[in-house]
Amino acid sequence: MPNKLKAGVIGLGILGQQHAEFLSNHPTVDVVAVSDLRQSAAEQVAAKLGAAAFTNYDEMFKQHQFDFVVVATPDHLHRAPTLAAIAAGVPNILQEKPLATSLADADAIYNAVERAGTRFFIDFANRAVPTDIATRYVIQNGLLGRMVYGEARLDDNISVPTQMWGARTKDFAAGSSTAHFLLSHVVDLLRWYFAPAEVTDVYAISQQTVLGYTPDLYDAFLTFNSGLKVRVKAEWIKHMDQLVEFYLGFSGSEGTLIYNKAPGFGVERGWRANLSAKLSADALLQHQATLLELGANVAAKVHRPAPTAGTLAAGGGETALALEHTGEVAGGTMALVGPIIDSILESTPTPASWQQRGPLPNHIDGLRQAQIVMAIIESSQTGQPVSLK
Ligand SMILES: NC(=O)c1ccc[n+]([C@@H]2O[C@H](COP(=O)([O-])OP(=O)(O)OC[C@H]3O[C@@H](n4cnc5c(N)ncnc54)[C@H](O)[C@@H]3O)[C@@H](O)[C@H]2O)c1
């Protein structure tokens, strides 16, 4: 591996520009060339970063060799540039989510990665957020008991599908949907939190009343082979003050997790896990110490919960254990890119910076995410449940 990775970026819109800047500020990366169909975008980014500008990525691959390429084209336009990068022999690729917006595209990318032996990552950046790492941790360590039910709602302001990409907005939204754009994140998080459980059955509804060129929303029930059932919902027609609202809640047989990740009106950001009564106070402190090491600033709580009907009848409540996040939550769209660069440089799927956080998302995760999202869309269209193999 060379001292510095020679990198390229294809697609220089909102995310691609962030990728190009992040890479160019990274001490072990040189951005040598960038490409966008819009010449002005390619030239502006290239001039800022001292890279070569292209409007045609095939030409870029003819003139440059890369160690690492990021693909950040719109959702429905991932296949062609990713396949071109693989065909050009690029050994490491980070592609934006979702993997694709059709099963044919998803299969084509997956098969090309397998055939070429490319190290392929997909940017499910929520996996790098400390409160998501903590969510995975409490579930994986059985601190909520056996997982039974969950609910995840991820909604965008209506300005996203109507205005966010300027003149590009309608094409972007029409080529995507809340299922591809938003539920891809949710589905990946669920597979990562609850691994090795996999989704086996999907039932979904949608509405197509307001926007016209793309569905207004999807609302789906996912059943996992562990027995877990999770409702997932994503809207694009919300007239709200925030850009994004994101709520997750999970009930286990012995505990409950409440996670207001991006809160809406009247709700505060927060992450709180009410843990199994089987846990000792010592074990609670050990888990807290591990989570602090993993970057999640959680407080350990031994408290007497507000009285329930049962404890009132019994004349007083037992103490209970909880973990609660305090302070700001780090993360952001580029949070996974550092560990991905470490993975490339250390030539391992789990670099030192990513220990105890589960795997980095790869083409298998991308394919599974696309299959689940396509099942949600199919079920909403047919009105029938869809089984996944
Ligand atoms: N990981 C995350 O958290 C996250 C967050 C937001 C968006 N995204 C994803 O990032 C991707 C890009 O989103 P965006 O908001 O930057 O979109 P965008 O429309 O702002 O940018 C896409 C760019 O790709 C360019 N493009 C299209 N076809 C091309 C081609 N053949 N060759 C070169 N350039 C081409 C467009 O001109 C545009 O500049 C999407 O898949 C989106 O879902 C990921």
Structural notes for this entry:
By secondary structure, the protein is α/β, with parallel strands linked by helices. The protein has a domain at 5-123 and 334-354: 3-Layer(aba) Sandwich (Rossmann fold), CATH 3.40.50.720. 37% of the residues lie in helices and 25% in strands. The chain has helices spanning 14-25, 39-49, 57-63, 79-87, 103-116, 130-140, 159-163, 169-175, 178-194, 281-293, 309-314, 337-346, 363-382, and strands at residues 5-10, 29-35, 52-54, 68-71, 92-95, 119-122, 147-156, 199-207, 217-224, 229-235, 244-252, 256-262, 270-274, 298-303, 320-325, 386-387. The strands form two sheets. Strands 14-15-13-12-11-7-10-9-8-16 form a ten-stranded mixed sheet. α5 (103-116) links the parallel β5 (92-95) and β6 (119-122). The model has no long low-confidence stretch (mean pLDDT 95). Bound molecules: nicotinamide-adenine-dinucleotide (NAD). Nicotinamide-adenine-dinucleotide is lined by residues 10-16, 35-38, 41, 57, 72-75, 77, 81, 96-97, 123, 125, 165, 168, 172, 181, 333.
Key features?
single chain; 389 residues; alpha/beta; Rossmann fold; 10-stranded mixed β-sheet; 6-stranded parallel β-sheet; 13 helices; binds nicotinamide-adenine-dinucleotide
Question: Care to give the gist of this entry?
Answer:
37% of the residues lie in helices and 25% in strands. By secondary structure, it is of the alpha/beta class. It has a domain at 5-123 and 334-354: 3-Layer(aba) Sandwich (Rossmann fold), CATH 3.40.50.720.
Provide the gyration radius in Å: 22 Å
Bound molecule kinds, no repeats:
nicotinamide-adenine-dinucleotide
Strand content: 15-25%
Strand order of the largest sheet: 14-15-13-12-11-7-10-9-8-16
H/E topology pattern: EHEHEHEHEHEHEHHHEEEEEEHEHEHHE
CATH topology of the domain at 5-123 and 334-354: Rossmann fold
Mean pLDDT: 95
Task: Report how far apart the termini are.
Answer: 39 Å
Helix count from the secondary structure assignment: 13
Instruction: Decide which structural class fits the backbone.
Output: alpha/beta
CATH class of the domain at 5-123 and 334-354: Alpha Beta
Tell me the CATH architecture of the domain at 5-123 and 334-354. Answer: 3-Layer(aba) Sandwich
Q: Which shape, going by the Cα principal axes?
A: globular
Largest sheet: 10 strands, mixed
Uncertain regions spanning at least 5 consecutive residues? none
